[in-house]
Amino acid sequence: MTDRSADILPADQSIGKVAEQLAGIPLHFPARRRWLAAMIFACALLLLLVISTAALFTRGVGIWGINIPVNWAFAIHNYVWWLGIGHAGTLISAFLLLTGSEWRNSLNRFAETMTLFAVICAGIYPVLHLGRPWYLYWMFPYPATMGVWPQFRSPLEWDIWAVLTYLTVSLAFWYTGLIPDLAVARDRAKSRGWQIFFGITALGWRGSAAHWSRWSQAYRLTAGLAVPLVVSVHSEVSLLFAAGQIPGWHSTIFPPYFVLGAAFSGFAVVAIIAIALRSWFGLENLVTDEHLDLLGKVLLATGLMTAYGYVAEVFDALYSGGAHEMQTLLDRIGGAYAWTYWGAIVFNFIPLQALWWRRVRRSGWALFLISVSVAFGMWLERYMILVTSLYRDFLVSSWGGFTPTFWDWSTYFGTIGLFLVPFLIAIRVIPMISIFETEELLHEEQEEKHGA
Amino acid sequence: MAPEPFGLLAEFDTPDALLAAAREARDAGYRRLDAFTPFPVEGLTQILRMPRPRISWVGLIGGFGGAGTALLMQFYVNYDYPLDVGGRPLYAISAFAVVTFELTILFSALSMIFVMLWQNGLPRLNHPIFAARRFHLASKDRFFLCVKGDDPELEPQKTAAFLKRVGARSVELVPP
Q: Which residues contact A425 (CB under 8 A, 6 or more apart)?
């Protein structure tokens, strides 16, 4: 990676120009019309979520298609899907920071922003699924008059700790990385409103050498903590399944399988956002074809690892020889929901193979379409894992089915609005590409050029 | 007597020029130095002889604090409300692992970030250095060296001439 980073950004741009360009995006927003159109669309989706939630809270979870035996469906399925998407933001930002892969510098800010809002979308789902969401506080250890404490030996209790920790640490990491850039925007701001906004949010950052040295240490160490955090959070999510005895869930491959699948879907969404943003704001000089090339490679690699998870899962069922495990395997490949299994395989892994070619990886459109296919394929995979395992469990008398209702779909599309609205606001008000890290990288590249 | 100025601020074009000037200033006997740069410049803190930050220790202590809190909490709630689930152990360390790990990370990360801000004296929305005319460039593409007002060697005229000689593009006296 190091020999590559030498020319990831065109080195003939001046550092000052880049700072002006990036800080200028919130200050002199270039794509007002397109932004407004996207915002109206996103707000419509958000409105749909508000309506769906209101309906849910008045009428109860019975308005969804869930019942016994499939009592976990869209709510948990989309929870896992959103959370998985969020993980790529942390991985890009933290993991690649630690490995010194400087190409991340053009991607990390919006990837982290994506993480924040994806985790929020994920986090509301279990709450909606509670049935009596006003009792959410029962999850927290407080001295209740009933004398009862939460059950810390249950994965369902682990969940809230994992998600809230992840959200808090992601927010803190994101903001810490943002402070120097808010100061850049503060120093460029001309209007009173922006000066106050950036003046306060930059916390008075002045780039002193002592500040930078403490900041770098805190930032890098937090990054070091964020990487195992991602792994632990999604492993914990997989334990919600694997700690149960349901055939098709009760498998030791689940933690790595879930973590890799999460990274896979997340990198796909990062690629979608990167391609969209660079064409919106004309950032071809900073999000270069080289970046797409690398994203394509990462996507291919995580995709192949996820494919390995599929193979291991089948092997696990065959090797166990358990009658119910085998039954679930057969249900997956030939049962009523076989379309989700084969759909996941086709959308996840078939278009992905095009990424073996360099020309495809470097083409914005091709990578965009493949990424959309992956995001959809991973959505089907989560659907498959949930429903195919639950609809036929041990007792034939309790077999059933699941069909999503209108409210299932409306809640899901609504969460896309819940993701897009704050994301669009973030694009509007904060520098979406890390300014100081880009400058640092440009400087290093120019040094190298001079040295050579 | 007029209050002593905040310091003398010299502007440089490149990190290398700043590093060279900082080295010269150290050699010339200036001790109260600071630098302001748009991005972290490698080697600067060593030249300015700034102490190594100790955020990592804070992170370690925070981590232990988090792990301790989580374990104590989980042991206590199982002690206070024992629930026998098919004879499984009440104090199941393996089942406590996830929450313990999460709180270790949470406490460690937050303590490091808060201590970093606290040691840096942030948030502090105003500061004398912001009064310098060209200081807004410190967040763009200029690199500043500051000889602080309490440096015993500081004599505004002489120091300004010195800074010019070591390659400063502009030198400015920052009022207190």
A: none
Q: List the helix and strand counts (H, then E) for chain A.
A: 17, 0
A103 close to A290: Cβ distance less than 8 angstroms: yes
| Chain B nearest C-alpha distance from A292 (Å) | 26
- Is B46 found in the same domain as B63? no
CB burial of residue B87 (10 Å; 0-12, 13-18, 19+): exposed
In this structure, are B41 and B64 located in the same domain?
A: no
Q: Does B64 share its domain with B108?
A: yes
Report B:144-173 residues touching A (Cβ under 8 A).
none
* B141 and B100 both lie in a single domain: no
Interface of B with A in 37-66 (CB under 8 A): 37-41, 44-45, 48, 50, 52-53, 55-56, 59
In this structure, the answer to whether residues B46 and B72 fall within a common structural domain is: no
Q: Into which CATH architecture does domain A2-451 fall?
A: Up-down Bundle (1.20)
B169 assigned to some structural domain: yes
Residue B135 and residue B98 share a domain: no
Query: What pLDDT, in 10s, does the model give residues A352-388?
Result: 999 999 998 998 899 999 999 999 999 999 999 999 9
Residue B166 shares a structural domain with residue B152: yes
Would you say residue B105 lies in a domain? yes
Mean pLDDT to the nearest integer, A403-413: 94
Q: What is the ipTM of this complex?
A: 0.92
Are B140 and A16 an interchain contact pair (Cβ–Cβ within 8 Å)?
Answer: yes
Q: Given pLDDT bands bounded at 50, 70 and 90, which one contains residue A1?
A: very low
- The Cα–Cα gap between A225 and B109 comes to 7
Percent helix, percent strand, percent coil in chain A, to nearest 5: 75, 0, 20
Q: Does any CB of chain B come closer than 8 Å to the CB of residue A222?
A: yes
Q: If you measure CA to CA, which chain A residue comes closest to B112?
A: A218
Last residue of a domain, one of B72, B89, B119: B119
Q: Which tens digit of pLDDT belongs to each residue from A254-266?
A: 899 999 999 999 9
Domain count, chain B: 2
Return the amino acid letter for A126. Answer: P
Q: Is residue B64 part of a domain?
A: yes
Helix (H) or strand (E) holding A318: helix A289-320
Confidence at residue A369, expressed as pLDDT on a 0 to 100 scale: 94
Residue type, B61: I
User: Which structural domain range is residue B18 located in?
Assistant: 7-52+128-174
Contact A172 B119 (CB under 8 A): no
Q: Could you read off the pLDDT of A4-44 as tens digits, one per residue?
A: 444 677 777 777 788 888 888 878 888 788 889 999 999 99
CATH number for the domain harbouring residue B166: 3.30.70
B48 and B63 together in one domain: no
Q: Is B120 on the interface with A (CB under 8 A)?
A: yes
In chain B, the DSSP E strands lie at: 7-12, 33-36, 143-148, 170-174
Distance from A261 to chain B by nearest Cα, in Å?
20
| Residue B48 placed within a domain | yes
